[in-house]
Amino acid sequence: MFGFIRKTLSSIYTQFTSKVRTLFTRSVVDQETLHELEKILISSDTGISTTRTIITNLKAQVANGSIAQGSDLHKALGEQLVALLKVRPYDYTADIYLLVGINGSGKTTFAGKLGFWLKGQHKKVLFIAGDTFRAAATEQLNSWGQKIGIPVVIGKEHQDPASVVFAGCEQFKTGDYSALIIDTAGRLQTKVNLMKELEKIKRSIEKQLPGKKIATLLTIDAMLGQNSFEQAKIFNESTHVDGLILTKMDGTGKGGIVFSIIQELQIPVAFISYGEQPEQLSLFNPEQYVTDLLSE
Ligand code: GDP
Ligand code: MG
Question: By mean pLDDT, which of 58-62, 74-78, 259-263 is the weakest?
């Protein structure tokens, strides 16, 4: 049985999994083996401090004899990686999804996939095109809507996004919808402006749709690796983020980025996204990710 990573995220397989697996076949694991592992972890964007934590723990286990051979290393590394991914569980029961993240990070594409996923669960889904700054952005969401059969609430170009959200919430109520996906602009304004805009949108939703559960999801482009942090942090400091979406996982070989992102932001990953097709989306499960990352 080939794992998800080998089948779907082939670049992670060649750049991380296949390399780390050669260590698991060693009959003896020593300091030199851990040094090789350290290099693999660093080169896959696991991050300096996360890598240091992992290696320090493994060194202690080599010293006390609990890691002697490759198979012991496989098990011990797996346990540590899973623990690093478990910040808090992500709750998949939201009614309303507010998508935030920088321009180009994959919000609109993810909106389409999320809509497709929710439809698969027999939800009646509505999109709101909250990115009113570029006509092309609205057009892009519209074409996803047409492709998968989800109506899209559209404002005028440069209209205040909160007022488009207002109109969308009205349509949600009158049309008896059960799931709402709000795509937003990814302008990197000042933190204060961004905060005000997102708070205004959230207040509008809370007022019009009281009792509905809102999930704010932050998209992060996995291909950018360590460079994605600074921008992600601005969003995280501007609003409460419930879950992360790691996008373009098909384009990165840096399977370690997931660990450094979660360690840095302390927010659970809700979904991973890979490719341009509606079904190229997976719920993120820490145990499964690590099992796939470390196995054939
Ligand atoms: P937005 O500006 O945040 O809404 O980002 P978009 O959804 O428009 O995505 C930016 C670009 O990345 C587009 O060309 C998408 O087709 C592409 N893209 C988005 N998600 C993925 C993905 O998971 N894999 C790949 N390969 N490309 C993606
Ligand atoms: Mg967009």
Answer: 259-263
What's the average model confidence in pLDDT over 147-151? 98
Does residue 106's CB lie within 6 angstroms of at least one atom of ligand 1? yes
* Residue 158 pLDDT: 87
Strands 179-184 and 96-100: parallel
92 vs 232, higher pLDDT: 92
C-alpha of residue 67 to centroid of ligand 2, in Å: 47
- Say if residue 187's pLDDT is above 80: no
- β-bridge mates for residue 180, sequence order: 96, 126
How many angstroms separate the alpha carbon of residue 103 from the centre of ligand 2?
7
User: What does the mean pLDDT of the chain come to?
Assistant: 94
Q: How far apart are alpha carbons 194 and 150 in whole angstroms?
A: 28
Rounded distance, CA 193 to CA 210, Å? Answer: 25
Q: Is the CB of 112 under 6 A from ligand 1?
A: no
**Mean pLDDT value of segment 195-211:** 92
Q: Cα of 99 to ligand 1 centre, how many Å?
A: 13
The 10 Å CB-count burial string (b at 16+, else e) for 219-240 is: bbbbbbbeebbebbebbbebbe
pLDDT, position 153: 97
Q: Which atom of ligand 1 is nearest to the CA of 103?
A: 2
pLDDT at 111 exceeding the cut of 80: yes
- Which ligand minimizes its atom distance to the CA of 219? 1
Residue 226 has phi, psi (to 5 degrees) of -55, -25
Ligand 1 contacts CB of residue 284 (under 6 A): no
